[in-house]
Design goal:
Layout: H1 20-27, H2 33-50, E1 54-59, H3 70-78, E2 84-86, H4 89-100, E3 104-105, H5 112-117, E4 120-123, E5 126-129, H6 134-150, E6 155-157, H7 158-169, H8 179-186, E7 190-191, H9 199-209, E8 214-216, H10 217-229, E9 235-241, H11 244-254, E10 260-267, H12 281-285, E11 290-300, H13 303-317, H14 325-335
Helix pairs in contact: 2-13, 3-8, 3-13, 4-6, 6-7, 6-9, 7-8
């Protein structure tokens, strides 16, 4: 007789008009490859979001914000799922650009020389007209700098500049499609450790050159410090999409809280080249960036494929979430004028 104690593999049973809840519960039985990892990720995130002592972090790269997956991020922010965002400057770029202009479906295999002639940028299989990117972003950030100048707010933490950017976007018709606007409305700090690596950061640098604005980068780290060290008996949990600086900054600060207690990675990078982007959750345990006792999983999948399914399941189970009380006071102090 077999001594295996794990559940047996069962065939998935599909039917017309299945709900996402039904589909995921069927996938739970499959025992197959990344489907089982995705289901485990959903279960970890569900537990994390129900843990009232957990401060939750959402980390992701800019590329997904150039796509309609931005809507899935917004659904989670609207419901208060995450207390903190750590991302890249390109997220600000694409979010602002898509509020005031349009992006289009494209093709991976198009002739890029022809696109250049037609004044179109290509991001994977997304087409971005020149005017929808640089000039569009420049106009909004100049408006932001003027707004801050009039209020004598010359030197600010970057997360606060992004907060005021949310106020600027408040007047735009497509504001409710903006991550920055929802973060502003919900008082969710957006931390961008690679501040100057994008169009928004470049425009802020021009404002700095002109003596109109200065960015206190270390104040962003002070906010993270207060969250990590100023909230006793707290846990940290994170959904980390992709890799790069947003992933590392999340787990870097988590080590000072004895590591993430809940960790879900979604990535297509491989670990064999030693890159941070491909590093699995288990590797972070050796750095104390994820706790030994953590509930964690790596889903090896492309985010635009799995995140809509994961988020739909979550919003079907958890309609809203309140910020941990211990965090609310810290944020009030940091966002007060």
């Amino acid at each position: 007789m077999s001594k295996i104690s794990t559940p047996k593999v069962e065939d998935i049973r599909l039917k017309p008009n299945m709900s996402v809840i039904e589909l995921v519960d069927e996938m739970r039985k499959m025992g197959g490859f990344q489907a089982s990892h995705m289901v485990k990720a959903i279960d970890i995130l569900t537990e994390m979001l129900r843990d009232k002592n957990c401060i939750t972090i959402l980390a992701f790269p800019a590329c997904i914000i150039a796509t309609g997956l931005r809507g899935a991020i917004i659904e989670m922010l609207k419901r208060g799922y995450f207390d903190l965002i750590i991302t890249t400057c390109g997220t600000l770029d694409h979010d602002v650009a898509r509020v005031v202009a349009t992006y289009h479906h494209g093709d991976f295999w198009v002739d890029d020389k022809e696109l250049l002639k037609d004044k179109i940028h290509r991001l994977g299989n997304i087409f971005i007209p020149f005017d929808s990117y640089g000039p569009a972003i420049e106009g909004v950030i100049k408006e932001l700098i003027s707004y801050l100048e009039k209020r004598n707010k010359k030197r600010l933490p970057h997360y606060k500049i992004v907060f005021y950017l949310g106020q600027i976007l408040d007047k735009y018709e497509k504001k409710e499609e903006s991550i920055i606007w929802w973060a502003y409305k919900k008082k969710i700090p957006i931390i961008v450790p690679g501040l100057t690596d994008g169009a928004v950061g470049f425009q802020l640098w021009i404002g700095y050159q002109e003596g109109k604005i200065d960015v206190d980068v270390f104040a962003d780290e002070s906010l993270l410090s207060d969250i990590v060290w100023g909230t006793p008996k707290r846990k940290l949990g994170a959904l980390i999409i992709g890799g790069g600086i947003s992933k590392h900054h999340t787990i870097w600060w988590s080590q000072f809280a004895d590591g993430l207690e809940y960790a879900v990675y979604v990535t297509t990078a491989v670990e064999q080249d030693g890159s941070l982007s491909g590093a699995q959750t288990r590797e972070a345990i050796s750095w104390r960036k994820i706790s030994e006792r953590a509930k964690h999983v790596t889903v090896w999948a492309e985010a635009t494929l799995v995140l809509p399914l994961m988020v739909t399941y979550l919003i079907s189970k958890i309609t809203s979430r309140e910020k941990p009380k211990m965090l609310s006071q810290i944020l009030r102090e940091h966002f007060s004028d």
